[in-house]
């Protein structure tokens, strides 16, 4: 007889598998799309602009943008996967089953966010593999590369989960990724070093949390970043904590899930 | 015996201010089929959704199998299967997968044998590889039932199970409910069809505007159903009835202008001849008479009608 308070592992796995099945079912959209868009970025930024910029911090421009590109996908994919994953059952009404099942909020989050994070990590690695076809890559700190990859995927999947709970229509679901995540990522030094900006904009950029993620990730690749790696790690952990707190608060209040 | 579902003083006020349930107290015995009857908006679904954990109660206490549904929600919910009113299914998943998913969600290890049995019982086995969106409405309803049975619940809630369902599925459903009862499963269903309650239930509860206004054995209700009333409109009002009429247990109507006699239509003797003879002997004359039958429908309509 299993204890009542034990983790309901079959339930977490059921949600996780269900979400992953959705991912593989839409493999064309989930996997092929990021590969194509990454290739396009390489053609446009790598080949067209790269031929003029040549190097940033002694790093060939084509290689320089790889961490930023991965971050861009990681952030948008995490947010959109996780938000859609929880929003759709709410929209379709199938959420009734999850609410009536003997599962804790923690287990629901583990299932949905775990699956969303897995998907974006898979996509991130596919992009890395695609990129390595275009430019020679060397990862200076593999451990920290994986650390940033996992934590960023997890953090932004949590963030997406919160958006999926908050949204009451498909429009709102698109709103945050479109108006906040994508601009912050593009302006967060994905394709340039913030050292290249005039001092004023460099200072403004430091308020953009994505700068710290991209910088840390780039440091893991090349041993160099816009800000000290310790700051990047701290920022990543702080944002993770913030999202965890937000999710915990939501479940404590039953917000948008139960009337 | 300890009731399998015990609801005490349950109230629900929605954020909109809607008072959906008011002090509902109800015990359901293990193994019975209980029909909750009531018009739309009476609070049937709210009641079910609270027991199942989908809606949070404002007040009150619920135990399922002795487990409090809030502090011991895991143990309580493991016992419960819910078939919702709306056809809320996934679209792209296959029948087999969605039913297996439900079993996992309730914390049980995989058991293809059980899933196969459930699907066969519901005539879904042939469709196990179909995507849910390819199924007809009736088939989707069967899928919802299969999902609810995937974790072998001890208590099954059927919220309006036969709304918009064809005859064949309705009959299949009743067969299934009977079979479940033989296995000791308690079934609680809501309906606004009286025939459905008559057909299936052991006990009937009537809910109106968030209050349970009647809970009775169906047999008892049926007994009432078999009763008729004879109303005699009198020429002269009577004060006290003569001793000779005592054996007929007559009720005196308003102002003494009528006498009401209740009798069993199923009895061998209705006693009407004797009554009329005794009335003539007592010198009570009447101008008119009528008889009426109280059906479950009448009782129900009477109970739920809003009294202005």
From TrEMBL, chain A:
Predominant subcellular localization, coarse grouping: membrane
PROSITE patterns: ABC_TM2 (PS51012)
Membrane-spanning parts: 27-49, 61-88, 108-131, 143-167, 173-193, 200-221, 227-251
Compartment(s): Cell inner membrane; Membrane
UniProt keyword annotation of Cell membrane present: yes
Membrane topology summary: Multi-pass membrane protein
The entry's keywords: Cell membrane, Membrane, Transmembrane, Transmembrane helix, Transport
Residue intervals of the ABC transmembrane type-2 domain: 25-254
InterPro entries named among the record's database cross-references: ABC-2_transport_permease (IPR052522), ABC2_TM (IPR013525), ABC2_TM_bact-type (IPR047817), ABC_2_transport (IPR000412)
NCBIfam families with a match to the protein in the record: PRK15066.1 (NF011648)
Family in the record: Belongs to the ABC-2 integral membrane protein family.
Name of this chain's protein: Transport permease protein
Species, as recorded: Methylorubrum zatmanii
Upper classification of the organism: Bacteria, Pseudomonadati, Pseudomonadota, Alphaproteobacteria, Hyphomicrobiales
From TrEMBL, chain B:
Gene3D superfamilies: P-loop containing nucleotide triphosphate hydrolases (3.40.50.300)
Record's signal peptide: none
Record has Chaperone as a keyword: no
Keyword Hydrolase: no
A Gene Ontology molecular function term of the record: ATP binding
Keyword annotations: ATP-binding, Nucleotide-binding, Transport
Domain ABC transporter per the UniProt entry, residue ranges: 5-234
InterPro entries in the record: AAA+_ATPase (IPR003593), ABC_transporter-like_ATP-bd (IPR003439), ABC_transporter-like_CS (IPR017871), ABC_transporter_ATP-binding (IPR050763), P-loop_NTPase (IPR027417)
Name of a matching Pfam family: ABC_tran
Family of this protein: Belongs to the ABC transporter superfamily.
Alphabetical list of PANTHER family matching this protein: ABC TRANSPORTER ATP-BINDING PROTEIN
Protein name: ABC transporter ATP-binding protein
